[in-house]
């Protein structure tokens, strides 16, 4: 059984998230009673990871809607739109919350115009859609995992095992379950084709050391932790088969925003001829953003760099630059692994066109 980052019970209208600021030392769930709480737990990174952000944001709206009284479909539509736009503002780089908000606002517009739909039906249909987003994330991740495992194995001979590097946390803690890049690693492990996974610490927030390592140990996956600065040395000495990371937003040309440090791993992978893969749900591809240059990169407080927990590690008075993400150019990416298949970055535009046709 993998870790559960989100607990949601429709019947009791209860939403709780595993507080990722306290992991791995303390396992504590925090109640999310509505949109305001949802915004806070996302912004403070008590829950993080692009898919988990979207799911918790949407579920926080569902919890609030069940407690609210609406006088008309028009009022419901307006409230839903305002609250979803507010949730999008909690963290700017990951596209998933924005994509989910746009989908839900479209649905609210359609339902409010449709005279055959009552207020009660509208609420019901809206809540069903949110529930569907949660369930779809898990099934999509399982497909991403299997597609990615097949792709990586297609590059090795016979039934040999592979050694993989990953960065940040893309597992059960970052999604509704299973994970994206970590889902690929889970699938390789389930197929008994994973020899070893190396996870980076992922400074400054240490998602790798605190969260990915926690998941790997929990699931008994053969793994080793390395510092971010050790990737070149690892690739030179350990015959790495592939790198697989997640994504916060993929531009239409395949440029990919992901956790800070991803770009340098891609550069190093190119130098060592190690294929570099991005694993993400298809909804992480933002057709409206033509290249990575247009992706807004969130900058986080200095404190995340200067302190580990309550303990200061940097000299007092030093100013910091703390971008939470960087953009890996499409030219460094061997493939984008999605639930719909594995695409070369240069295929993305055509795939987007065929989906919207
Ligand atoms: C499946 S999670 C994909 C990405 O969101 C992940 O790689 C990442 O960059 C997470 O960043 P975070 O700042 O921890 O939210």
TrEMBL record:
Any one Gene Ontology BP term: L-methionine salvage from methylthioadenosine
- Reaction it catalyzes: 5-(methylsulfanyl)-alpha-D-ribose 1-phosphate = 5-(methylsulfanyl)-D-ribulose 1-phosphate
What does the record give as the organism's lineage? Eukaryota, Metazoa, Ecdysozoa, Arthropoda, Hexapoda
Named in its record, the pathway it takes part in is: Amino-acid biosynthesis; L-methionine biosynthesis via salvage pathway; L-methionine from S-methyl-5-thio-alpha-D-ribose 1-phosphate: step 1/6
Q: What EC number(s) does the entry state?
A: 5.3.1.23
Say which species the protein is native to. Dendroctonus ponderosae (Mountain pine beetle)
Q: What is this protein called?
A: Methylthioribose-1-phosphate isomerase
Q: Gene name, please?
A: 109538131
First-level EC class: isomerase
A single Gene Ontology molecular function, please? S-methyl-5-thioribose-1-phosphate isomerase activity
